[in-house]
Design a protein that fits this description.
297 residues; alpha/beta; Arc Repressor Mutant, subunit A; D-Maltodextrin-Binding Protein, domain 2; activator; DNA binding; Probable hydrogen peroxide-inducible genes activator
């Protein structure tokens, strides 16, 4: 089967609508329908259930989608490596990174690297730790900046820097003047937290359990800035990383936790046994150097 047709299948599986997929791909609808028919004939079974004018991916299609994504990623990675050998100063780096590294660390790294290698292109993905791990697992990312260390796939892991956690409270909160606090002291407070799948939420769950807290959670956010914004608005308190100097949210007070062991490691990961392209390897070196500087701040 042709690689282009495999890409067409992925788009069709994601939209589950021939007309929409054809428009997104810029191909004629009959051409896309014939390509799907060839693929289904080749694998020996329908990959979609037909419901009126819509398609719904069936169990066979789910298997094909998983392997199609992985196969496309591997072919793209092969092309990247070939391009890098042909021109070591160019190439593509597919970088996945946490939301919480997007406001200073990742932009700093990208700025420094682009000054060194302006011809290298980037494919960027910003998301939660579980989504980043999935992109590593499926070959859609070369390098990830994330936390905690991915467990879904064997990874080479390099700790970049460590963040202590603190309690974020509104500026007019009764505890705002405290220099340090134990979480057990706010067991009766309402909390703002990330969703259950997020790495920071899992760490927070562990800290709550160790402090004997069964938290009342007012809202589960998708990003730390949203948590901080809701804290500032008086909707609750939150456990967040201690912000870098000058980067905290207005109207929020950050109180360090008494337990200095409560920390979050931010690290760089790539799939173990997969050789990084020259561009990605060079980028990893810049990331490590920038992290070394960050630890000294």
């Amino acid at each position: 089967m042709l690689l282009d047709e495999l890409r067409w299948f992925v788009v069709l599986a994601e939209t589950e609508h021939v007309t929409s997929a054809a428009a997104e791909l810029g191909v004629a609808q009959p051409t896309l329908s014939r390509a799907l028919a060839r693929l289904e004939n080749q694998v020996g079974t329908p990959l979609f259930d037909r419901i009126g004018r819509r398609l719904r991916l069936n169990g066979y299609g789910q298997i094909m989608l998983e392997h199609a994504r992985r196969g496309i990623a591997e072919m793209d990675a092969a092309q990247v490596r070939i391009d890098a050998l042909l021109d070591p100063d160019s190439g593509l780096v597919r970088l996945a990174f946490l939301h919480s590294t997007a406001n200073w660390f990742v932009p700093d790294v990208l700025r420094q690297f682009r000054a060194l290698a302006p011809a290298v292109r980037f494919e960027l993905f910003q998301g939660a730790a579980h989504d980043i791990a999935e992109r590593l697992r499926t070959g859609q990312a070369d390098v990830a900046i994330t936390s905690p260390r991915p467990t879904q796939v064997p990874c080479t892991w390099r700790v970049l820097y460590v963040e202590r956690l603190c309690l974020a409270v509104p500026a007019d909160h009764r505890l705002a003047g405290r220099a340090r606090i134990r979480l057990s002291e706010v067991a009766d407070e309402t909390f703002i937290a990330l969703g259950a799948d997020f790495g920071l939420r899992q760490l927070t769950d562990q800290v709550w359990a160790e402090s004997g807290i069964t938290p009342e959670i007012a809202f589960e956010a998708m990003e730390i800035p949203t948590m901080e914004g809701l804290v500032a608005a008086g909707f609750g308190v939150a456990v967040v990383p201690v912000p870098r100097p000058g980067r905290g949210a207005p109207s929020v007070i950050y109180i360090p936790l008494s337990d200095t062991r409560v920390k979050r490691e931010i690290g760089m990961a790539w799939v173990k046994g997969h050789e990084l392209s020259p561009a990605a390897a060079r980028f990893a070196e810049v990331v490590s150097a920038t992290a070394s500087d960050a630890r000294n701040v």
